């Protein structure tokens, strides 16, 4: 059964042509969807559309059978309670410790008890391998550690679906593995995720479904082995030949 359903989703930036064009996807609970494709193909725009940062101009989004009305503040707020998005830039508060960065939104936005949130935040930081970094400030952390704080901060909002937008692209190569290990852990825990990434080996390993996008459209979608090893469309064959030839 579909947990997240997109039907005919289209969106544009200021009417300058669609960056998403008739995107239709069905995603089950606990699935990890790897979004691949060339730069400008609409992968990041799709994540932004889901959380209302790029309001769709057409189409339908349902979460757990509940339609999202992006023109309604109440409906959008309810949808955002179910999504959490992590960008390639960490966007941490530089004047706050790792622990405070994770706690601030649940306390200030969700109005949850501070002591309860702090206990959960410590558990989340431990989960992403930062149990000894509660009191560290962002400038005392590596890029990989900062990105893991950003993931813990997103998880603190208790989302149903986690959206990860090129979360390793700003990292030095030796720091990529620690972030990917965190995503592996979340997959094992059954978190539903949409992952935009150019790390093809990782997508092959972690994704249950791979979606190839080009020019704002879904060109092909299916299991990693078929999409990456036996592409059907000429466009995907050309893409994989260039990406995977080494």
Strand order of the largest sheet: 6-7-8-3-9-10
Uncertain segments are none
What's the number of extended β-strand segments?
10
Round the mean pLDDT to the nearest integer and report it: 93
Number of helices: 9
Gross morphology is globular
How many angstroms separate the termini?
38 Å
Structural category: alpha/beta
- The fraction of residues in strands falls at 15-25%
Main sheet overview = 6 strands, mixed
User: How do the SSEs run, as a string of H and E?
Assistant: EEEHEEHEHHHEHEHEEHH
Approximate helicity band:
25-40%
Radius of gyration, Cα only, in angstroms? 18 Å
Characterization of the model:
The protein has 246 residues and is α/β, with parallel strands linked by helices. It has a domain of 68 residues. Strand 1 and strand 2 form a beta hairpin. Helix 4 packs across helix 5. The longest helix is centred in the last third of the chain and has 16 residues. It is globular and about 55 Å long. 38% of the residues are buried.
